[in-house]
Design brief:
It comes from Quillaja saponaria. The chain is α+β, with helices and mostly antiparallel strands and 367 residues long. The chain has five helices and 19 strands. It has one domain (3-47, 115-363): Creatinase/methionine aminopeptidase superfamily (Creatine Amidinohydrolase), CATH 3.90.230.10. Helix 4 (236-254) runs antiparallel to helix 5 (263-275). The radius of gyration is 21 Å and the shape is globular.
């Protein structure tokens, strides 16, 4: 789950949605839930294009205008563009589900106050790594299971119920449930929703994309992962956005190893996203994860000058969000969680929890 992060030293973290959060410093309030949000004036998120490309783009527009003119003269039917998908609307949110008393619960359960982001990096010994592997493997299995429900007419509330049941049957707790007051067991972010979408009665439509963000708390350890799924007949443009977002995650993980600088992650992700003209959301960031849901280091997915290096045995998430087009501005619904692109353009996200090793990084959220 990302958290919201602010680069301004005096700004407190805000947690608009489930796993993303906002953070300005290690002592700030956590908004880390599903991809921490991060704001920065140093990077606009708007890629620059060489003059040659602009000329080519202009010629393409001229060619399209000429085609319309010829069709009109010959009485041919006009070429129409597809209608814009209706904006996302809130459905009915059902009461939160219950968890049996015998299941171990995180310390934040029972309070609607957002937990502090821990300033300590979570570095593990061999026994602790084994527990992290178990939690992350369960999270991966739950996510794969949740993906089997994605189809037109299914509601995100039904996906939440299925996820909740599988997690408690495995003897684990759904980490999002009750985190800072979050009312559901999973985050479901559809189309223009960047992150922290709350499951409700809205039915998925043919052509939607949906990110499902799963975190489980098993034997005192959190495992955190997410994936964007295709619902029915999705356009090629949306498929490309989803594919490139997953590739960005893979490129970010590829630079990780003991001693590597954290800023390399954002550099690699930005380089790949910009090849396709996509924006990399800065407001939400990855985070340390383990016995604590959200901790340092905060992982920035855009170009940055973040200090610090990775350490063997450390675990954290990488969870980039890409938008179609270069705009990365966002808006949050009154529920203080659901965060959408300001211009209504689609967004996609992928997330893994990784373990830093001497020679690279092990992806823990696989099964």
């Amino acid at each position: 789950m990302a958290i919201t992060a602010s680069l301004a030293p005096s700004t407190s973290l805000q947690l608009p949605s489930f796993f993303h959060g906002e953070a300005s410093s290690s002592s700030s309030k956590s908004t880390l839930f599903m991809g921490t949000p991060l704001t920065s004036s140093a990077h606009s998120g708007i890629p620059s294009f060489p003059r040659k490309q602009l000329v080519v783009f202009s010629k393409r527009i001229s060619g399209l205008q000429e085609a319309f003119r010829i069709r009109k003269e010959r009485g041919l039917p006009s070429v129409t563009t597809s209608k814009r998908r209706p904006p996302l609307r809130r459905g009915r949110v059902s009461p939160r589900l219950t968890v049996p008393d015998h299941i171990q619960k995180p310390p934040y359960v029972g309070s609607n106050t957002l937990p502090e982001i821990s300033s300590e990096h979570q570095i593990h010994d061999s026994e602790e790594i084994a527990r992290m592997r178990a939690a992350c493997e369960l999270a991966a299995r739950v996510l794969n299971y949740a993906g089997t429900f994605v189809r037109p007419s299914i509601t995100t509330n039904e996906i939440d119920k299925a996820v909740h049941q599988m997690i408690i049957e495995a003897g684990a707790y759904p980490s999002p449930l009750g985190y800072g007051g979050f009312p559901k067991s999973v985050c479901t972010s559809v189309n223009e929703c960047m992150c922290h979408g709350i499951p409700d009665s809205r039915q998925l439509q043919n052509g939607d994309i949906i990110n499902i963000d799963v975190t489980v708390y098993l034997n005192g350890y959190h495992g955190d992962t997410s994936k964007t799924f295709l619902c029915g007949d999705v356009t090629d443009a949306m498929k490309r956005l989803v594919k490139v977002t997953e590739e960005c995650l893979e490129r970010g993980i590829a630079v990780c190893k003991d001693g590597a600088s954290f800023k390399k992650i954002g550099k690699r992700i930005s380089e790949h996203a910009e090849k396709y003209g996509y924006g990399v959301v800065e407001r939400f960031v990855g985070h340390g994860v383990g016995t604590v849901f959200h901790s340092e280091p905060l992982i920035l997915h855009h170009r940055n000058d973040q200090s610090g290096c990775m350490v063997e045995g450390e675990t954290f998430t990488i969870e980039p969000i890409l938008t179609m087009g270069s705009s990365i501005e966002c808006k949050t619904w009154p529920d203080n969680w659901t965060t959408l692109t300001a211009d209504g353009s689609p967004a996609a996200q992928f997330e893994h929890t990784i373990l830093i090793t001497r020679t690279g990084a092990e992806i823990l959220t696989t099964c």
